[in-house]
Records
---
Amino acid sequence: MFRPFVTVGGVVSEAQLLESLRAGDEDAFRTLVREYQPSLVRVARIYVPTQAAAEDVAAETWLGVLNGLDRFEGRSSLRTWIFRILTNIAKTRAVRDGRTLPFSALQEPGRVPEAAVDADRFQDPEHPRWPGHWAVRPEAWPEDALLAAETREVIAEVIEALPATQRAVISLRDIEGWSSEEVRNALDLSETNQRVLLHRARSKVRAALESYLQENA
Amino acid sequence: MTVYAEQLSCQELVELVTDYLEDALSEEETARFEAHIGGCDGCNVYLDQIRQTIAIVGGLSVDALTPEAESALLNAFRGWHSN
């Protein structure tokens, strides 16, 4: 799926952008960098431990993009190609730094079960009448508190505190609006694992939002 | 409360919410999910909250690149093009 790019000169297709890049058009490069840099850093954080290291990996990725641009044949989308470069650089760096790669976190996120809602919110599964039903039901949220600037800050902090794989998936899907297919390609994830990570991330953000809104009601 | 209690518990339903929103449930599972939601206030509120969560996360701003980092990259681009 191709998404048009919005440049200084207007909306252009990926092919047009590529042509401008190859011709040395700085605006085209700036467009590309602004579009992908935040996601590159987020994805790099899956592999490297700090924000600074992730920014280094992203910067190195751009150099890799420039080096490969003339050879890029468009068999995959530009985005997929750029993220493949990033992943390779980040993995190489993780190996060099002697870090264990979070392969299991990407490939088997479902291995360790994680409840979307604490078990104590529900009736016992053996309850004679209402097994597994709400014991403490969620209450509808007040709209004004939900839309407060402070609430957004709380959410940003919660997302920042998520495990890196979950943070990358929720950011790409829900903040940047990528499709599940785009996320799967960029992170090399199976369909199921993409959903498991998204589910966990959204469930945690909801739970954090619920306790924040309750405390501040 | 719900008449579909024995079919899908609330505790099971909350684990299916993402699959439901991602259209990843089978037809039968979707029917079970919707039957439960139709009769359960708690799960209705829960599903709403997940939707509200997605909407509010969607309104967060994307971290911008610092001007220094951007000009460093543009310098690299100029260097690349002049080679």
Note: Chain A touches chain B through 55 residues (CB under 8 Å).
---
Amino acid sequence: MRYLASRFAQMLLVLWVVATLLFLMFRLLPADPTSAFIDPTFTMEQQAEIRAAFGLDKPLWEQYFIYFANLLQGEFGQSFFQQRPVLDILVSALPNTIMLTVTALLVAYGFGVLAGAWLAWKRGSWVEAVAAVLTVRAAPEFWLGMILLAVFGFGLSWFPSGGANSAGARFDSELARLFSLDFWHHMFLPALTLALYLQGLPLLLMRSNMLEVMQEDYVTMARMKGLPESRIVLRHAARNALLPVVTAFTLGLGATVGGNVVVETVFSWPGLGRVLVTAVASSDYPLAQGAFLLITVVLVVMNFAADLLYSVLDPRVSHGRG
Amino acid sequence: MTETPSFSRRGLLLGATALTAVAAIDAPASAQGAGGQIRRITLISAAQASDPQEFQAANLVAQAWRQLGLDVEVRGMPRPQLSDLVWRSRDRWDTTMWRMVGRPERSDPDELVYNLFHSSTAETGFNFVGYRNPAYDAVAEAQRRELDLARRRTLINEAQQLVMRDVPYFFLVYPQNVIAFNNQVMRRETVVDQAGIGQRNFWTFNGAEPVGAQRDLIANAAEALNAINPLYISGAIDSWVTDLVWDRLMRVGPDGLPRPWSAESVTTVNPTTVDVKMRPGLMWHDGRPVTLDDVIFSFQAPAGSEAPMYRPFVTNIAGMEKRGEDTVRFTLREASSSFQTATLAKVNLIPKHVWEPVLARLESSPQNAESHQEVEPVGSGPWKVTRFRLQEEIVLERVANHFAPPKFNRWILRVVTNTEASLGMLRRGEINFLADYRGDPALLQNLARQAPQIEMASAIDMGFRFVAPNLRRAPFDDVAFRRALMTALNRNLMVQAAWNGFAVPANSHVSAALTAWHLPEAHRANMQEARRMLEEAGYRVVNGRLHYPAGRQETLQSLQ
């Protein structure tokens, strides 16, 4: 319990530091956000009025306190350009991002774990040499996405060229949209691109863990007992080799939520990454702060979850008990 | 339709660079009667990544000026930072690349003729170069008051002549807007070319006729929308939607002139009194009738503090009154030749029953009308909003009982952030109107050649690209110096090398697209002539660097 409370306090501290850095970072950027926003025909009074409406006429410390007081109430402020609450904008982009990220991660880690275990089993064979070359962690997402789009989208016409739904498609609810065939058809290529990009880490991690675990005494013991190789690999070695991969998965989830900018742009996928890029490019402080903060929260919470999960999955790991 | 440029951009740049080198060797070096050496001049531009054409043009400009002995540095910076510097620190910069964008209300030359160069806007307004000329002020004011078309045309010509003489801008090009559409989905003849706007306009979206079974006009946008709000000028793409959903009393027609729209007629009673007679039977999308009170409210709402972006368009209205059942009389503070275009064809008609309570509530809040997003937007235009996701897609449905009902059933705008994907989508039929293309026009041209169903069109924009000198700072305060620099610029080279042939040389702040107002001018780049002009004005090249005329020293710092 004490451990939990201490980790929780650390989490809050990290969030406060990040929130403060975000606040300062955007205000230290060279341009005034209203430069791109204010029409040149405006008088100085009108320009001042708009700056006042955004709260940019107040001293920095006052802006900081207002920002923090709002944050504590779950209020992320109003987007300068879209003139809507930041939370609404983020929440509307989140379902697409979560669906894409979780699907891609599940595919990447499912494949990575199985392929990693298999490669460890086939160590030294020609299969391992070929597979290592095909591990496409190094292929840039942009290149990979464009190739898949050119082949399966423009060339074979198997999949749509972009967006999350067909033009003008109607759905009864958001849930119906997210689980419609149309949505999954549109998500196939972006999810595949992201999965191909992400699978390298779990694959290599699993393989190296497996190689290590295969040297353990209990594996030797299992072999001496005459158990079939497949059972030794799956039941004994793979289960133990899986622990670091589970941790990587939770951290990966946090990191990937905000890191889909490239895939979202290539496939015109309306998600959080694109919101973030647009907000930064147009100096939309509240929106950029809100998006970064949301990503930080997911990342920090996932870190926390990884810590807890690790101690649950591996009883040998203990926290705060000396 | 556009011709393919006959030579490559790379070839042109190499040629231009070679010429620069030859000319530099050829430069005269006379120290006689020279003043101080001119400081390094910084030409600021949007960063190469964000606007490669502009950055390329900046480098061509710098190359040409270096041939005159000027030390020119091109500095790319993010657009907001550039705007911030030019707009807020008006005495710090030397020259900047700049652009004026085309908008329907700029079909009337008043906004650009008056605001760009009238001395009253030099301090804090549009006249950021600081041009002050009482003769120009008088002409700009006179054309604003002049309601006779022929006399006004003479005044606009005079304004252009003054600008050509005084060179407050170094005009470069009028860019061409490029679009493409599927001619198996919409009839080619119904795609309208609006003067200065091109084929992506209200008249095309409203009047295009389907030719096959497809009844959805599906267009693309390269970036997400910000809002759908009749009291908020939130972005160029957003305005395509507001144009279709909210009607105005007048609309700027394909010929660039205002024509009655929701109004049946617009009558100028005297220079400061305008009567607007409404069409009968106009309805809001929620089924309620459009009343004269709604019309008056639509012009009153922006006058307060709740819609600052629309306020400039209504400040000249002194009062409005109902006259009879169907007419509203507008009384103006002063005569305005652009009132119809800049006000009656600009301000959206909004329903009083929807917006009055909203504005009342906002009065006591820090937000204004720009932050209000209707869940179901209500206008009286030919299209109504069915649903929208600003990051993703806007779906409009035709209003069958509108006085000008659209021919397509639905107008769908898809946000496609990948330029190559938008070409693929056009070819595959996922979109049938490429409304927003930011890639190389030559690629689109190739696509149109390969796929006969794809038709490409381009039109000269009423906007223009130019180099803005800071007239507050020497040596740009000297008109002779500016004329020489202008003479050194090869605008045909800019068209080919920077805009890949998809632009025409510019010479005036009234675009060549506005044929009724534009004043053509024969201009040829001539480096020898430019050198002669500098020499004649007392400038001297010493050891390859340009110096001020005798007795004049450099007193300013280069941009840090």
Note: Confidence is low (pLDDT under 50) at residues 1-7, 21-29 of chain B.
---
Amino acid sequence: MSQDTENFESLQRLLTLKRHEQPPPGYFDSFSRDVILRIKAGDRGEDAYGYFWQLPWLQRIWSALEARPVIAGGFGLAACSLLVLGVVNADTDRMDVQPVAAAPQAVATIQVANNFASDQPLLARPAAMEISESSPIATVAKDGQPSIFDLVPRPQAQTISLNLSPAGSP
Amino acid sequence: MIMAEPVSHKAAKPPEPAPGDNPPPLPEESDLVKRARRGDLAAYDDLVKRYQERIYATVYHMTSNHEDANDLAQEAFIKAFHALKSFKGGSSFYTWVYRIAVNKTINFLKQRKNKTQMSLDDLDFNVEHDPDLVALISDKTPRREVGLTELQEKLNAALQRLSEPHRLVVTLHDVQGLSHEEIAKIMDCNIGTVRSRLFYARQQLQAYLSDYLK
């Protein structure tokens, strides 16, 4: 014990060297002026990494992780497990939803025929459109309410006689 | 015994006036704080001047880097100015600013991990006449061949190997001469923790510097 004390005394003597470390001459002459100038310039003296890092609970967690690699490893493993679990769950949900969306009773078929097209042989085949129940168009159509598309005047087919024979010929 | 208070409090004492001088009485700290809280920058300038050396020294001994210490010490005072409204006066302004500077420095050091680069201040002219160092160097050990600058580098390197709380305790107690009670207030822990940290830190330092302490 006495040897320890003696060694600590030597150490304390050595540490007095630190008291002789001095900043460049005149350094403190401008120190307070610089502080005041920075305050006047709107400096808040905040850390570059902001308040988040200064949260005490976050610092405690960080210290615990830093001090014990086992805890850090466990934390990493838990985070990875959660991630994998999340991904697997997300895939399962998607597979559950797909059959419902594809159910035949959920789809309403609307035949959209154009008056203009009905007169034209090439366009005689009516356009068919499948719209799911979730579509607003389908909902309107099923309710029998007029769609905003009904407000648009539809083109009317007219028969026009054209004479394409050259001029002067009978 | 081991935890004895330091004999010397050189670093914590303000310079004494020369005999015969009658300097004007210093305004009370509480008055300066009240004025600074109202936005009086002249009053805050006085407060900064009063504690700048101690705050700078603490941060410097923690970082072993002059530029970092300069930035951190200034930022601590700036932050303290903006936080003055939240200062309840439960502790002295000095303890409060110390705590801000220490927290700021520890946060900085955690960010800077593994990027330690020392930028040491020069030793002053009195170092060769310091009785503690004279006694240490004039002993019959290998230290005799070691120059003070090299010793300074070894000492700083050893301090940087300590964890931040241990380095802080050694800095505040063995270098700056603060009492265990003051350190406990600054570090927001109990005195027993301060004592145990100091003991452990000294043991660590002793191991790191064994070649120079034989």
Note: Residues 207 and 213 of chain B are 9 Å apart (CA to CA).
---
Amino acid sequence: MESRPTRIALTVWSALVVLFLWIPLALIIVYAFNKSNVESWPMPGFTTHWFRAAWTSEVRTSVWLSVRVGLIATGIALVLGTMAAVGVVRFRFFGRETVSFLFVLPIALPGIVTAIALSSAFEASHVDLSMWTIVTGHATFCVVVVYNNVVARLRRSSPSLIEASQDLGADGWQTFRFVVWPVLSTALVAGGLLAFALSFDEVIVTYFTAGAQNTLPLLIFGYIRLGQQLPVVNVIAFAMILLTSIPVLLAQRLVRDTGVTVRGAAAAAQAQG
Amino acid sequence: MNAFTSEVQHIWNLDNYRLLWDQGAYHKIAYRTIGIAAAVTAADAILAFPLGYFMARVAGGRSRAFVFVAVLLPLWSSYLIRIYIWQLILANDGVLNWSLRKVGLPAANIGYTNWAVWLIFTYVWLPFMILPVYGALERVPDSFLEASRDLGAGGWTTFRRILLPLALPGVVAGSIFTFSLTLGDYITPLLAGGASSQFIGNVVYDSIGSQQTPFAAAFAVVPLAVMGVYLLIARRLGAFEAL
């Protein structure tokens, strides 16, 4: 075991790193109550005024677009990601390793590469940018999250369960409903939640695939870049931090101690870069 | 590009690559991007390794779960917001300078510089390094470390000869994220950098804005090629099993 001074040093270092991660988040929560619309420190006073002022029609429209895009992209990812995962885990076929590698590869691609690839593909095929091009872009990385979660779950469950079900006379639908679904359901919920969270936060690829419409991150990006509406940004930040904690904590409970969240988190790289 | 209609003409040639090659300014931007990506990766590895070790081998069940969630939540909270709050912290009249003044130190005006870009990237991608490093360290069996000690190795030798080689795949796996994410970003340099903080991503972003898709695509090949080489090396170091 480690010596006492080593353990103390490690504990102190870890505490400092956790503080480094959390002090900025704590600050943004405080800033949402800033009385002034100049974001300097220390703040002149507190108010809850901005919470009412932040719900503008611009914000409402963008939230609604982000929600729709997130739901559709997650839906596509659940269907495609599950089918691909089942195919890769359950069957052996020519090029199987390549397919599984290609599914995970987008995680390691720099975001600007994905962005320009999609943007020039849409341009070359004369597809007008719309909500559907945003959805297409988001689905590419949401699929990875679902795929990773389902593959991890399938690898840990035994194929003999399905064989047993078939031996006992169950048809395909019954096997799916009573054997496969219960095994997969929590992995799908966790994967879906993470996929939605990724889509809801994405900005690098979205900027290149959105036309005139703004998702919530694009709207915030515009505000921050121009230094406009910063009190509104503060309130949105406050709300987003609270809201994202809910799916994360939920997903964490669903896949506790399985390491699936770590994989899902790893796939987050794709969405953010 | 047709000068008259400014419509992109599809002709196969190497003009866009030649433009990249001939202009020293683009070299500088590419070096800056790759250099900062490497510096961010190094800083994240140094911050993450002791924390991963703490989580895997020192902390009890409850404090490990607490630290795990404390790392996971910032990872999933909005990326733009995390850049934005650092803008406020590093500003001239921000929290950093206020705290420095309180303890009697001179103000650090690092807002809108390459230092700010480096610091913010290090902050934003840190959880991506912590999780794989923790995973790798957790898989090192206790008996290996005990054996090393029984054979007379000191703490430093055990660390260098046993722990580091076994945890290396985790560090490399984390570095794929921190390096690749920094390489492909344009938001942080745009929002928090200064006049000399342009990244490859920013050039691509501006070129798309001015309808020069072919040139943007040519420049985007640079991070793609760098990542290709990086992944080949990472695979040799066994990082893919640690993803």
Note: The mean pLDDT of chain B is 86.
